[in-house]
Amino acid sequence: MHIPTAPTAALDILPFDRALEEYGQHAGGFDRDAWYYIPDTYGEYRYILGTKGRRPLICAGLNPSTAAPGDLDNTLKSVSRIAAGNGFDSWLMFNVYAQRATRPKDMDPALNVRLHRENMRAFAWALEQSETQPVVWAAWGAVVETRGYLKQCLLDMAAIAEKAGARWVKAGPVSVKGHPHHPLYLRKDAQTEDFDIGRYLAQLHMK
After folding, report:
1. Residues of the chain with pLDDT > 90: what percent?
2. Distance of CA 98 to the CA centre of its chain
3. Residue 18's pLDDT is what?
4. How many CB atoms neighbour CB 10 within 10 A?
5. Cis peptide before 7 (omega within 30 of 0)
6. At 115, phi and psi to the nearest 5?
7. pLDDT 10s digits, 13-22
8. If DSSP codes are grouped into helix, strand and coil, which group holds residue 167?
């Protein structure tokens, strides 16, 4: 369980570019030739967690929890299985909002613009890691309705993905309101299918 110690506005946010530059300078007990973990120490936010490869499946969840390299939670174990089962050689876990909070209701009540800006830089970087067309798995679930500002985060992500020529996919059925399925509880052999992000965002109503 990770409950935020303070709103992220009270934190000194490490810019993504600097976190990437410093990657590997801290002792972490994991193989940095096999893993991405940015920042590479456990903290109140996380930009990227995943494995290194030439064709990663970029999973876009809602927000990070406690997972770390070699210590994946059930959600990340599912992401790893589904990435492999759909022909990807690696996976990258990105999140709509970078704040760690096991319970989405504990997320920042208002958008931290700086954290969001750095998180979007992380997303653009993740898209660049694929040697073929980037594939983004929409996997944030219905809890995206937890905070109204998350729609703006999604709009910004969609614009960045479009510029990169990315393909959006989902796994499993969408909810009644059209939200893409969260990775947890998906079948082990779940297959990814095209997801119309533009239509989804046009129909997304959030307070």
Report:
1. 86
2. 8
3. 96
4. 10
5. no
6. -60, -40
7. 999 999 999 8
8. strand
Per-residue pLDDT reduced to its tens digit, 188-204: 899 999 999 999 999 99
Order of strands across the sheet that contains 35-38: 35-38, 48-51, 90-95, 56-61, 135-138, 167-171, 192-194
Query: pLDDT tens digits for 123-180?
Result: 999 999 999 999 999 999 999 999 999 999 999 999 999 999 999 999 999 999 999 9
Between the alpha carbon of residue 27 and those of residues 12, 49, 50, 93, 184, the distances in Å are 21, 16, 18, 21, 30
In this prediction, residues 15-31 reach a mean pLDDT of 85
- Give the pLDDT confidence score for residue 61 in this predicted structure: 97
**Of residues 139, 141, 146, 201, the one with CA closest to residue 170:** 139
Instruction: Indicate the SS3 state at residue 60.
Output: strand
* Contact partners, residue 21, CB within 8 Å, separation at least 6: none
Query: Taking 90 as the threshold, does the pLDDT of residue 29 lie above it?
Result: no
Global pTM value: 0.95
> Residue 81: what are its φ and ψ, rounded to 5°?
-65, -45
Task: Determine which helix (DSSP H) or strand (DSSP E) holds 137, and give its type and residue range.
Answer: strand 135-138
C-alpha span between 84 and 53 (Å, rounded): 12
Residue positions counted in the chain: 207
**CA–CA dist 148, 130 (Å, integer):** 31
